Amino acid sequence: MSTFRLDVVTPNRHFFSEEVEMVIIRGTEGDLGILKGHYPMVTQLGIARLKIKQAGEWREAAISSGYAEVKENYTMIVTDSAEWPDEIDIDRAEAAMQRAKDRMKHGPTDLDLVRAEAALRRAITRIDVAKRDH
Q1: What is the rounded CA–CA span in Å between residue 66 and residue 43?
Q2: Which residue in 80, 97, 107, 81 sits closest to 131, CA to CA?
């Protein structure tokens, strides 16, 4: 299978930079599979799982928000955060999930609700990615 370059960067580090066969990301309109030769585009990303196929094997990471720039032979993902399953502290993620649920239940303002919903989505994604790897 043909490969293309994938770079994933966060404000804190260059998370990933290798040749890949396929990437699956979650854009605002749903999941998007990217192969070599994909048409050029830019799309906003949500809080979701990033799936990377290399040498016939799939790897997953948790990402939160950002955008992807897709070119024929190159894709760059810029995201607020990216974590491999072994980097995720499940206990911490579960505590964050509970805090977010509590805020959603007791949050007095719309802004608090939006932030709590985003925190909940991040926590659930991190937990899901970490537990799938075990």
Answers
A1: 9
A2: 97
**Sign of torsion, CA 88 93 95 96?**
positive
Q: Is the dihedral of CA 86, 91, 96, 101 positive or negative?
A: positive
Contact 20, 4 (CB under 8 A): yes
Which tens digits make up the pLDDT trace of 31-89?
A: 999 999 999 999 999 888 999 999 999 999 999 889 999 999 999 999 999 999 999 88
Residue 102: per-residue pLDDT: 81
Element (H, E) at 13: none
Domains, in order of start, for the chain: 4-83 (2.60.15.10), 87-132 (1.20.5.440)
Q: What percent of the chain has pLDDT over 90?
A: 55
Round to whole Å and give the CA distance between 44 and 77: 10
123 burial via Cβ count (<10 Å: 0-12, 13-18, 19+): buried
Task: Indicate yes or no: pTM above 0.85.
Answer: no
Contact 86, 79 (CB under 8 A): no
